[in-house]
Amino acid sequence: METPDFRSYFLIRIKLARTVNEIHGDLLSTFSDSYPGLSTLQRWHTEFDKCVFALEKKTHPGRPRETRTEENVARVKRLVDDNPRMIVLSIGRACPPAHPTGRAGLGSGAKNMK
């Protein structure tokens, strides 16, 4: 089952007044190889209590989790093919991230930070 399916199952069980531990036990006995852990179910219960529980995973703005794209792979491959002795730091400088992060994204005040 996918995460939205587990979240739907969880929501139905909570509405039927089942406890988080009971739901976890049901999932463990039914889906012994792949199921959300107890801490995940507890977090979902907290979200449900705060009325921020959503069945679908929300997308967040900003830097994507996955930065391995065909374009990035091809760019790094070309760099290494041109210079097989290139070090990782050189590749990082030649392929800057699409979204500035860390000190690069903070502006001039970042130089004084430790």
TrEMBL record:
Cellular component terms per the entry's GO annotation: condensed chromosome; nucleus; site of double-strand break
Gene Ontology biological process terms in this record: DNA double-strand break processing; DNA integration; double-strand break repair via nonhomologous end joining; mitotic DNA integrity checkpoint signaling; replication fork processing
Spans traversing the lipid bilayer: none
InterPro entries given in the database record: Transposase-MT_Hybrid
Organism domain of life: Eukaryota
Molecular-function GO terms, alphabetical: DNA topoisomerase binding; double-stranded DNA binding; histone H3K36 methyltransferase activity; histone H3K4 methyltransferase activity; single-stranded DNA binding; single-stranded DNA endodeoxyribonuclease activity
Descriptive protein name: Mos1 transposase HTH domain-containing protein
Source organism of this protein record: Caligus rogercresseyi (Sea louse)
